[in-house]
Design goal:
31% of the residues are buried. By secondary structure, this protein is α+β, with helices and mostly antiparallel strands. A hairpin with a 3-residue loop joins strand 1 and strand 2. 39% of the residues lie in helices and 16% in strands. The chain has eight helices and eight strands. Among the domains are: 63 residues, Winged helix-like DNA-binding domain superfamily/Winged helix DNA-binding domain (Arc Repressor Mutant, subunit A, Orthogonal Bundle), CATH 1.10.10.10; 72 residues, SH3 type barrels (Roll). The protein is globular, with a radius of gyration of 20 Å. A six-stranded antiparallel β-sheet has the order 3-8-4-5-6-7. The chain has a two-stranded antiparallel ribbon with strand order 1-2.
């Protein structure tokens, strides 16, 4: 938590940042009216809080347009969201709660969970990447993960990425999920075929994607070793 935030305001600040993160699409500002409705407070109160957040360097405020998170504000929001979704996994998978009930209780835990405890919880759970409601879990405490979305077809061999969205029917999405390519999953590109097909390395092994399937997937880049070559012996998908 930012040491400049008074303790009495910390939970309120975290909730505002989290709501902005969940409402924000790409880099479009979140309207004050939409944020106020989400927070169940008046637009005047929301406007005042956003001004304070701007003073702390957590949001960019644009009159008549709304607010967007700075990298600092995003990091705080993603840290809170990570804690919430880790607790959701624990409550649903280990204690047997319904996913919606787990989320409701996790919302109370997210503000009082120290960073170190959250990381120990993640390790205990096997470092999950998805919540019980199939929402991505931010990968690390304090990380700003709302990176620009890219078409999977733009990636090159050696690059690593995380799946944001698969624009296909349920049958295709289910199949890809069983092969380690569901929303929130990370993977590495091994090779690119002449027709645009891709050979990927996922947590479930090597996956050969046709051009048609590649064009349905949106991703964000994650860390990738500079100049990392494709795995030895990897072959491009057949045209």
């Amino acid at each position: 938590m930012d040491p400049n935030i008074p303790e009495s305001m910390s939970e309120s600040v975290e909730m505002y940042l989290l709501r902005i993160a969940l409402l924000q699409e790409d880099d479009h500002p979140v309207p004050i009216s939409a944020l106020a409705e989400e927070m169940a407070v008046s637009p005047v109160s929301t406007n005042q809080m956003c001004r304070k957040l701007e003073e702390r360097g957590m949001v960019h405020y644009e009159p008549y347009k709304g607010v967007t998170l700075t990298l600092h504000g995003e990091a705080v929001a993603m840290r809170v969201l990570r804690k919430r979704r880790l607790w959701e996994v624990f409550l649903a998978e280990r204690l047997g709660l319904e996913p919606t009930q787990a989320e409701e209780i996790a919302c109370r835990f997210e503000h009082v969970t120290p960073d170190g405890l959250a990381e120990r919880l993640s390790g205990y759970l096997g470092n999950p990447t998805l919540s019980p409601q199939m929402e991505p879990i931010p990968p690390s405490i304090g990380a700003a993960v709302r990176r620009p979305r890219l078409a999977l077809s733009l990636l090159s061999p050696g690059q690593q990425a995380q799946v944001c969205q698969i624009n296909a029917d349920g049958q295709v999405r289910d199949f890809l999920r069983t092969r380690g390519l569901g929303p929130g999953a990370t993977f590495r590109v091994l090779a690119v075929a002449g027709d645009g097909g891709l050979l990927l390395e996922t947590t479930q092994g090597v996956l050969n994607l046709s051009t048609e399937i590649v064009q349905l997937v949106e991703v964000t880049l994650t860390r990738s070793p500079a100049g990392a070559p494709a795995s030895p012996g990897a072959e491009a998908p057949a045209a």
